[in-house]
Design brief:
By secondary structure, this protein is mainly beta. It has 2 domains: about 30 residues; about 150 residues, lipopolysaccharide transport protein A fold, CATH 2.60.450. The longest helix is centred in the first third of the chain and has 19 residues. The termini are far apart.
Length: about 190
């Protein structure tokens, strides 16, 4: 074999190794943090975190059975997180298969089979990724969203919930179905 053949073979091996190693074979959709070790720095069991509003009332509760943080990272990986938001009259609850808490940005991102619902069961939201941004008072997703309520459902791509007003904005491809027969009947005088 000549040197050119050996050089091309080595180059192909390096390229194949990089393609295999970059994570694309795992179906990773989120970019990985840079300068983060694969070594677990901390492992947590039965994690509970509570945030209180300025009056001392419980505003947000985050719970996860297991969590871990890697060396050099400000992100804590959560296993089956549960989020409760109490700041409005009717609390919102959320759960998902996985999640992350970014201690620097003060955000909680819930991923895979995300369900967000009101305590009165008047609205249920499903999507694949959802981010709670504490400082901005927002919940956002770029993904497809379905909101189900007793009278029907609404679907769209991309969403922002303004927590102070509970205003829900769907950004694109919005479709809605409403069945007036399922609407609560009001008593007439």
């Amino acid at each position: 074999m000549n040197r050119l053949g050996i050089g091309i073979g080595f180059l192909l091996l390096v390229v194949a190794s990089l393609i295999w190693y970059d994570g694309s074979f795992k179906g990773v959709t989120e970019p990985r943090e840079t300068n983060v070790s694969d070594t677990v720095d901390s492992y947590f069991v039965n994690v509970k975190s509570h945030d209180f509003d300025e009056t001392g009332e419980l505003a947000v509760s985050l719970k996860s059975d297991h969590a871990q943080r890697f060396l050099g990272s400000t992100v804590i990986q959560l296993d089956q997180p549960h989020l409760k938001y109490f700041a409005q009259k009717i609390p919102w609850y959320g759960r998902s298969d996985a999640g992350q808490y970014d201690t620097d940005k003060e955000t909680v991102t819930m991923q895979d089979n995300v369900v967000l619902y009101r305590a009165d069961d008047q609205a249920r939201l499903t999507t694949q990724i959802l981010t709670y941004k504490k400082q901005q008072g927002l919940i956002e997703t770029p993904d497809r969203v379905t909101i189900t309520f007793p009278e029907g459902d609404t679907k769209g791509r991309g969403m922002t919930i303004h927590l102070d007003t509970e205003l829900i904005e769907l950004h694109n491809d919005v479709e809605s179905y409403y069945d007036p027969a399922k609407a609560p009947q009001k008593n007439k005088p």
